[in-house]
Design goal:
globular, 9-stranded mixed β-sheet, single chain
């Protein structure tokens, strides 16, 4: 018999930053995420925050969860209240201490994101979301003096994407939907905002032809231009360049020297020093990073060497990396489907000196008992290729016969299930296989990782063709695999995956013997009314506007609530009380209604969680409840 506590004994090591001989990082060493430091090479981690303060998963956050300012002997830390995501910029001494407001002005009525930092100039760039109206404000903040400069206000984000070395120019982005960006330039000397590229929404009509540019990860170049990530020249993204003197003309930047193979997409561009950059790729869910040199005259990026994707940093996902320009080295957190997050540094000029600074491991469970997963991609009902993984119990576990199925659906929807032990899903997948289940994990249309067009297929089609991909997999694909027993199938998903779980269980009840909804929207009209004000403009574009009669009819048709009486399988609903994305009332609505009509439903609500389950005791309870629930109804 295996215990989830053995799986969770492998603690998280996330978002490392290395400063001289100290490594700063997030970890759940105490049972919840907090900030720690240790000596280079490894030492007993030292807590930097009081024990009662819990930080949140950086994967859910925009920008930095913390940043070290060595010249000030301070650390900026973004702190919320047990998952409510109302982040505030707080300051602590570099050796730790009680957090105090990071700026003289307190952002009490704002949710704050730390999007860019320059420790050499003591500057941070904050994007703030009003908690009472549809307003986003971008600030440049001096972390030493507390002075704030209002850069721009917008309904559509005003994301801080780049700054020049003198901090006299800042690139700001408005994002309407994924890929539909408009680029602005703030100029300190004139305090004016210039439209640099794209067509603002208010200037569009039905005849306006708008190309999805997906411009982000911008960088000012020495030659007076802007280098950036874009979808203008490739659906799977690439590089673009514009002259600040002629910003309407974007030119493609060629890339040569990559060595990866497989399907995926270019993911990000980061500046290292001078004309050197890193290129990050997501290939079949795994991370590749290249160090490269940019020739501005030729508009060409030449790969010099591979940083991640080979050797011990292969077949997994990079959670985060940090470049230390003082000592010319990288610090990163990396994990795979079977290996927990570890902190590595990559040093020397050739980047061949890889040092591992942690040694987290799963206790009492041999590596050969874990499932590495196999490719299970398929062609769906309309010819669309769907990437998928199938995790089967190890042969070492001696299970016989077809295995009952746990059908796992990721969140987003514009996200992707990847071999990533830092996220909630991988420990659950492994624990289910240890208990005799097969686990099928598809990345259906709308998922990221396979190009912009594929990701956009879910816009204004929640519960449409994405749902049919799942149905096709259950009716046509999985029954053909004699190792899987689809007559004993349960569906489980988080967030959007929880929404899809409810849709599948209610609209296709014949497919399921059990269902687990983790903080999934139940009624799209109430969901859209209950989300934070600053999120409503985006969601009304990508899902629908309840105030429009036609959209409202569509939202009702695509809501699990419309079909919930058809559900026949037992249902387990899991929710965090402080969740701002899918509020607790949304989950309680489905539970209370199903109970009034005599349906079998269990409710697990965590008082001190948000849109995740992070604290150790809650994770133990959550994983056990799901596994016990499936064991009871699917009989492995």
């Amino acid at each position: 018999m295996f215990h989830i506590e053995s799986m969770l004994s492998a603690r998280l090591f996330l978002s490392p930053q290395i400063i001289e001989d100290r490594i700063y990082f997030l970890s759940n060493l105490s049972g919840h995420l907090s900030l720690y430091a240790m000596d280079y090479g490894g030492s007993v981690p030292e807590p930097l925050l009081p024990p009662q303060i819990a930080l949140q998963n950086p994967i859910l956050m925009e920008g930095y969860s913390f940043f070290v300012f060595p010249n000030l002997n301070k650390i900026l830390v973004m702190i919320d209240n047990d998952g409510d995501e109302n982040y505030q910029p707080m300051a602590i001494p570099i050796d730790g201490g009680f957090p105090e407001p990071g700026f003289k002005k307190n952002f009490n009525n704002y949710r704050v994101h730390c999007e860019r930092c320059d420790p050499d100039h003591d500057l941070v760039y904050l994007r703030t979301e009003s908690r009472i109206e549809q307003k986003n404000v971008a600030f440049q903040g001096n972390f030493s003096t507390g002075k704030l400069v209002n850069l721009r206000e917008s309904t559509w984000g005003s994301h801080v994407d780049a700054f020049n070395p003198e901090h006299s120019q800042v690139i700001l982005l408005d994002t309407y939907t994924v890929g539909d960006n408009v680029v602005y330039l703030w100029n300190k000397n004139t305090d004016e905002i210039q439209l640099l590229y794209g067509t603002p929404l208010e200037n569009r009509n039905k005849q306006t032809d708008v190309s999805l540019n997906a411009i982000e990860f911008s960088h000012f170049t020495d030659g007076g231009g802007l280098l950036f990530f874009t979808a203008l020249f490739s659906d799977t993204y690439g590089l673009g360049y514009l002259s600040l003197q002629q910003p309407d003309k974007v030119q493609p930047v060629t890339i040569s020297g990559t060595t990866h193979e497989g399907k995926g997409e270019f993911e990000s561009l980061e500046h290292i020093h001078n004309n050197h950059y890193t290129l990050k790729y997501n290939i079949d869910g795994c991370t590749w990073i290249y160090e490269s040199t940019f020739n501005e005259n030729a508009l060409h990026m030449e790969v010099d060497r591979t940083i991640c994707g080979w050797g011990e940093l292969s077949d997994g996902m990079l959670e985060e990396f940090y470049y230390d320009k003082t000592d010319n080295r990288y610090c990163m957190s990396f994990s795979t489907a079977t290996s927990p997050t570890q902190i590595f540094t990559i040093e020397d000029e050739n980047r061949t000196n890889i040092k591992q600074h942690t040694n987290e491991r799963i206790l009492g469970i041999p590596d050969e008992y874990l499932s590495t997963g196999e490719d299970a991609s398929f062609t769906s009902f309309d010819g669309t290729r769907i990437s998928a993984k199938l995790y089967l119990p190890s042969v070492k576990l001696n299970f016989t016969g077809p295995r009952p199925l746990a059908y796992y659906i990721h969140g987003g929807p514009q996200s992707q299930e990847r071999p990533d032990f830092a996220w909630f899903s991988m420990p659950l997948i492994q624990y289910l296989t240890l208990n005799g289940f097969s686990v099928f994990v598809p990345n259906v249309r709308g998922s990221s990782g396979y190009g912009l067009k594929y990701m956009k297929l879910v816009d204004r089609d929640w519960g449409g063709n994405d749902r049919l991909d799942h149905v096709y997999a259950m009716e046509k694909v999985l029954p053909a695999d004699n190792r899987v027993d689809t007559s004993r199938a349960g569906v489980v998903g988080r967030s959007y995956g929880g929404y899809m779980t409810l849709m599948l269980a209610a609209r296709h009840p014949e497919l399921w013997a059990a269902a687990v909804d983790m903080f999934g929207p139940y009624d799209l009209t109430t969901f859209l009314d209950r989300i934070p004000e600053t999120w409503k403009p985006y969601y009304r574009l990508v899902i629908g506007n309840p105030e429009n009669d036609q959209d409202r009819s569509f939202l009702i048709d695509r809501s699990p609530r419309t079909y919930i009486e058809q559900i026949s399988s037992p249902l387990l609903v899991i929710q965090g009380k402080n969740d701002p994305r899918v509020i607790e009332r949304e989950s309680r609505d489905v539970v209370e209604y199903l109970r009034t009509i005599g349906k079998e439903v269990e409710y697990l609500m965590f008082e001190n969680e948000g849109h995740d389950v992070l604290k150790f005791e809650n994770r133990v309870s959550c994983y056990n409840e799901i596994t016990t629930f499936f064991t009871k109804h699917l009989r492995p």
